[in-house]
Design goal:
Elements (H helix, E strand, L loop, with lengths): L1 H18 L7 H19 L4 E8 L3 E4 L2 E5 L19 E7 L2 E10 L9 E10 L2 E4 L4 E8 L3 E3 L6 E9 L3 E3 L10 E6 L5 E4 L4 E5 L3 E8 L3 E5 L2 E8 L3 E16 L2 E3 L3 E9 L5 E3 L6 H8 L5 E2 L11 E3 L1 H19 L5 H20 L2 E2 L8 H9 L5 E2 L12 E3 L1 H19 L5 H20 L2 E2 L9 H12 L3 E2 L11 E3 L1 H19 L5 H19 L3 E2 L2
Parallel strand pairs: 3-5, 5-7, 6-8, 7-9, 8-10, 9-11, 10-12, 11-13, 12-14, 13-15, 14-16, 15-17, 16-18, 17-18, 18-19, 18-20, 19-21, 22-23, 25-26, 28-29
Antiparallel strand pairs: 1-2, 1-4, 2-3, 4-5, 23-24, 26-27, 29-30
Length: about 550
């Protein structure tokens, strides 16, 4: 792009001036040169040109409040007649040479669409060398290169879509100016390396591409992000709740009072710069990792297998050590209370890979013996006991497997009976076979009795379930304007119902998630209660 090339050229000139050694005699001159270059670069970032209001478009001209102008060939797609609706009453800062628009240094779209029919603005890969401002609702912007910011004002109240828009600076969402705020749905499609500055609360952002950076600032209290993001920075004034799903590589908390990060996102790292902020960390699910570690599938160790029964498997000590190392690494992650979800995920993958290698090198023994008690003894040694809980798991660490004392006693009794057969010199092959079968059944029953601890908290979801049931009961007829409805019938629009249903769906996910904390439940109750109140406040009566 020509303006980016100019900025790069100026920046190169500045850099060159800064690194050239200067004598004390010429220092003042060189400093003046630097200041001169910086002034030129700063000037290129301003919205230069004349400010106009766009009145109409023809095939070859733009009719404005300051006259009619032809359009440079590189900007024709920007002022194509297909954009006539979107550009109606738009404000633009343009550079005109010889009656021709050669550059657009700022553009503000003021024409709103509806929930049924959006207003489209297709730039056709043309360039705006400054800021693009969207100042109207239900607008879809696509295929345009914006050198500066893409600004979404507080007049965008319901929805906006950006499709393949290249933004050189940030996508900035301006703060709300009213107390009554509805959810704004921002859809990003094929947006590469997007940076977002969010100063508006109750925004739902969904993106099919990973976002580079999202900065949440000011009075934002709720943010629903349905996307992956490399870095999320939170610097808010008061309490803040993060909702949504996706993967976040890093979260940095710089400000706020109570910041809740226990959303459905998979978070790699959380950095808290302000120690005065109370942060609720993401829920780390270790259930699968703990289950894998609870049933380590070891076999015998031998040099050549001559001492191992033909019915058993064995490996060398080196092969066993390699697998032991993987088990130790996975257990370190399982026992680390500060481990991230990404670390847990990697530990599971590494454990499974090591297990596959360990199982691949296992060989059958070559020893044959009467009664084959070695197989029974190996099965006894394979039993992995877990914690006993006396208080329904509330006294067991989060995601740690446990059973009742009765379930432990049952497996201990089965092991004792099997050991008695091993110790019985006169045990027959039938005795041994029956003992192996009985112990296998007991082990299967014991493992299926595993439950998982919840850090000592009893999670009461009764009120949330009742609120979900009530939320469904307040639904009224859906209509855009009440046309065709019997007089006196209450109705809301589809979007107003969808906003409430989004809150209901989130509450149902909290209810169905066995790992939800009491804080999750309480936050969801508050969120759904507000959503119900907003929805009921939007009731309209058909005439």
């Amino acid at each position: 792009m020509k303006n980016k090339a100019l900025a790069t050229l100026m920046a190169t000139a500045i850099t060159a001036t800064l690194v050239i050694p200067v004598s004390s005699v010429s220092a003042a001159t060189s400093l003046n040169q630097v200041i001169s270059y910086e002034t030129q670069v700063a000037a290129t970032k301003k919205a230069i040109g004349e400010s106009v209001s766009i009145r109409n478009l023809t095939k070859d001209t733009v009719i404005t409040s300051n006259g009619t102008f032809r359009v440079h060939k590189e900007l024709k797609s920007l002022f194509h007649t297909s954009n006539k609706t979107a550009l109606t009453n738009a404000q633009a800062t343009i550079v005109v040479k010889n009656g021709q628009i050669t550059d657009v240094t700022a553009l503000t779209l003021n024409k709103a669409g509806t929930s049924k029919k959006s207003v489209y603005f297709d730039g056709g890969e043309a360039e705006i060398s400054g800021d693009l401002t969207v100042n109207a609702d239900n607008v879809k912007v696509q295929d345009v290169n914006v050198d500066g910011q893409l600004i979404i004002t507080n007049r965008v109240k319901k929805a906006i879509t950006l499709n393949n828009v290249e933004v050189g600076d940030t996508i900035t969402l301006k703060p709300n100016v009213t107390k009554k705020v509805n959810w704004l749905y921002v859809t990003l499609i094929d947006m590469q390396s997007s940076d977002i500055n969010l100063a508006r609360t109750k925004v739902n952002v969904s993106s099919d591409q990973t976002l580079s950076k999202v900065d949440v600032v000011g009075k934002v209290t709720i943010f629903d992000m349905m996307s992956n993001v490399e870095k999320l920075t939170i610097n808010v004034d008061k309490d803040f709740n993060l909702y949504g799903e996706g993967k976040i590589d890093q979260i940095v908390v710089k400000g706020g009072t109570k910041v809740a990060l226990d959303s459905g996102h998979q978070v790699g790292n959380v950095q808290v710069d302000n120690k005065n902020v109370s942060v609720t960390l993401p829920i780390i699910d270790k259930k699968e990792l703990n289950t894998l570690l609870a049933s380590s599938p070891y076999v015998h160790v031998s040099v050549n297998g001559y001492d191992i029964l033909s019915t058993d498997k064995w490996t060398t000590q080196a092969e066993r050590n390699a697998f032991d190392s993987a088990v130790a690494s996975a257990r370190a992650v399982a026992n680390n209370n500060s481990a991230s979800q990404e670390q847990v995920k990697n530990a599971i993958i590494q454990y499974k890979n090591a297990l596959a290698v360990y199982q691949a090198v296992q060989k059958s023994g070559t020893k044959y013996g009467y009664g084959d008690k070695a197989s029974l003894q190996a099965l006894i040694y394979s039993v992995q006991y877990v914690t006993v809980s006396w208080y329904n798991g509330t006294d067991v660490s989060y995601n740690t497997p446990w059973t009742t004392q009765a379930e432990l006693s049952a497996i201990e009794s089965a092991v004792s009976s099997a050991q008695a057969v091993v110790n019985n010199y006169y045990a027959t092959q039938t005795d041994i076979a029956n003992a192996i079968n009985n112990l296998n059944n007991a082990i299967w029953t014991y493992k299926n009795a595993y439950k998982y601890g919840n850090n000592g908290y009893y999670i009461d979801k009764t009120n949330l379930q009742s609120l979900v049931n009530y939320a469904y009961s307040v639904r009224v007829t859906v209509s855009e304007n009440g046309a065709g409805l019997t007089a006196g019938t209450l109705y809301t629009t589809q979007r107003e119902w969808d906003e409430l249903y989004s809150a209901i769906s989130y509450a149902e996910r909290i209810i169905s998630n066995s790992n939800s904390s009491q804080y999750d439940v309480s936050s969801s109750v508050d969120y759904l209660d507000r959503a119900i109140s907003v929805y009921r406040g939007q009731y309209k009566t058909a005439y």
